[in-house]
């Protein structure tokens, strides 16, 4: 039986995702729900060497359809279930699981993917991590509408705090019309796409909004 050459696992993406720059990345995903779980799986497949997962929740039946967890994951912590699948995707991945809420003193990697539900939690994480990270991506979703915000240079770092509105201004929809796995996958893909642009030293899109139902994509030009 021919032994597969795992050195070729990234062969078809090397000009898009530079291996040497990826090897220097330590990625933290805060919140492994609908978007965060997909971000973690894509990072694992891409080949990030170090991954930290932070989330205090356990897998419940309501998480299966919209977050892609397996029925066998029920009652497990989300970080444990996600970490196991990430390591199945890439055996060489170093994964760190924190089944707890994010703390201001929390150590993070040099790339943070913020995938939490509450705007106040986003603000807390940003205030704690903004000066310690090279790349920041925030994925937001409501049903079939998503927004991806990226901060990695002076202009985008100025813009991001302006998107942290008061919690009382957040849109509240019906509990049966909040989340879809297809929208989460697209949001995660857009976040990873911005990360890949940074690795290639290309300009990133600081603020993307996509309405899948209306078929409308809006890209804000930040200066």
Average predicted confidence as pLDDT: 93
Oligomer: single chain
In the predicted model, the low-confidence regions spanning at least 5 consecutive residues are 173-177
CATH superfamily: NAD(P)-binding Rossmann-like Domain
Second rung of CATH, namely the architecture = 3-Layer(aba) Sandwich
Question: Can you summarize the main beta sheet?
Answer: 8 strands, mixed
Count of beta strands: 8
- Percentage beta strand: 15-25%
Order of helices and strands: HEHEHHEEHEEHHEE
Rg over alpha carbons = 17 Å
Derived structural class: alpha/beta
Give me the CATH fold name: Rossmann fold
H/I helix tally: 7
Integer count of domains: 1
Distance between the termini: 56 Å
User: Spatial order of the strands in the main sheet?
Assistant: 3-2-1-4-5-6-7-8
Can you tell me the CATH class?
A: Alpha Beta
Helix content: 25-40%
Folded structure, characterized:
- The protein is of the alpha/beta class and 223 residues long.
- The protein has a single domain, classed as 3-Layer(aba) Sandwich (Rossmann fold).
- The chain is 31% helix and 20% strand.
- It has seven helices and eight strands, in the order H-E-H-E-H-H-E-E-H-E-E-H-H-E-E.
- It has an eight-stranded mixed β-sheet with strand order 3-2-1-4-5-6-7-8, with helices on both faces.
- Strand 1, helix 2 and strand 2 (50-54) form a beta-alpha-beta unit.
- Helix 2 packs parallel to helix 4 (78-89) and helix 2 (34-46) packs across helix 7 (181-199).
- The longest helix has 19 residues, at 181-199.
- It starts with 18 loop residues before the first helix and ends with a strand.
């Amino acid at each position: 039986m021919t032994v597969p050459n795992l050195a070729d696992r990234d062969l078809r993406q090397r000009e898009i995702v530079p291996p040497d720059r990826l090897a220097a990345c330590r990625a933290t995903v805060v919140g492994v729900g609908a978007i965060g779980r997909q971000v973690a799986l894509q990072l694992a497949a891409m080949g990030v060497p170090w991954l930290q997962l932070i989330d205090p929740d356990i897998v419940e039946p309501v998480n299966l359809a919209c977050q892609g967890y397996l029925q066998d994951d029920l009652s497990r912590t989300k970080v444990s279930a996600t970490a196991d699948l990430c390591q199945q995707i890439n055996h060489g991945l170093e994964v760190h699981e924190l089944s707890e809420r994010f703390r201001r003193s929390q150590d993070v990697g040099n790339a943070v993917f913020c995938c939490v539900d509450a705007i106040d939690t986003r603000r807390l994480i940003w205030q704690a991590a903004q000066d310690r990270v090279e790349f920041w991506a925030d994925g937001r979703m409501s049903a079939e509408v998503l927004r991806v915000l990226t901060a990695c240079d002076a202009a985008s770092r100025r813009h991001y705090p302006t998107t942290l509105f008061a919690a009382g201004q957040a849109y509240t929809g019906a509990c049966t019309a909040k989340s879809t796995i297809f929208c989460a996958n697209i949001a995660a893909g857009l976040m990873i796409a911005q990360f890949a642009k940074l690795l290639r030293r290309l300009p990133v899109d600081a603020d993307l909004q996509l309405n899948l139902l209306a078929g409308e994509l809006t890209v804000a030009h930040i200066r």
